[in-house]
Amino acid sequence: MRLKYSLLCALAAVVVCSSCNDEWNEEQFERYISFKAPINSEGVSRINVPYKTTEPATYQVPLIVSGSIINDRNYTVRIGIDTDTLDVLNYERFNNRKDLYYKALDTRFFSFPETVEIKAGENTALLPVQFDLNGLDLTDKWVLPLTIEDAPDGSYTPNYRKHYRKALLRIMPFNDYSGNYSGVNYKSYIAGAEGEGAIVKSLIMTYVVDHETVFFYAGTVDETRTDRKNYKIKARFVTEGGRNRVELTAENDNMKFRLNKAPTFYVEETMDPLRPYLLHKTVTIMDIDYNFVDYTTVPNAELEYHVVGDLTMERQINTQIPDDDQSIEWE
Question: Where are the domains of the chain?
């Protein structure tokens, strides 16, 4: 009896092991084609593209074949533009505030192949998108809305789950000086009331103009303001005669921009003590001091502000990675 029981247990173990092995050898899921473009809190996937003037900049968008085992088929995946999804996003997030809508990037600023090949034995592939962003006005919020199109012959199935078939790429070109600066030491006062409380923003965003120039919005104005285009300040970084200075200018005369003191900047580079391959690069703009007038917030009235302080930005750069956009550990 005991022998019969032992034989039954051994047979059951063989069956279980066989079943487990079958699970590893056979596909357990549907094979879907997806983008790898996770969205952020703003509903889009921010991509950082190096600013170039002499040649296009290439950004590689990953595609993935889902499944539990290695892909054993060749796929030719068709990629297209989907502005309808962008329209839905805009309405759901901003309703009738069209001044805050994302805008679809014009075709003259980008190009990409119509199809991407995913080879048998590989579960991923890359879609190379070439960007030529010269002349792009970053006061608007530009998005490249991509979609995985249906296969004409049914040879593959796009992943229909939200944010997998679509890639809403928020285009953010960068140079050595653009990005998020800490604004804790950057203070806005009502002119004439500098002894009272200051208005402070934790982050001041700067946007690319060219290789040596960025722009930001005056005071506490940011891209949530409908009238933000009226308050652009350009900052040109100049090094000459052993001195680093920042030239601040404004093109809109109505904001009555007045520079009280010429700011300077310095760049500091240090290696991380725990991760020796990681470079900390800090850009600091010092002695900012200017006045401007907010002439649109209150109808028929002008509010003059006095802005003073410093701005600091830190980048963490992995020196083992040669590509600029990949080596920077973006926030």
Answer: 33-174, 179-327
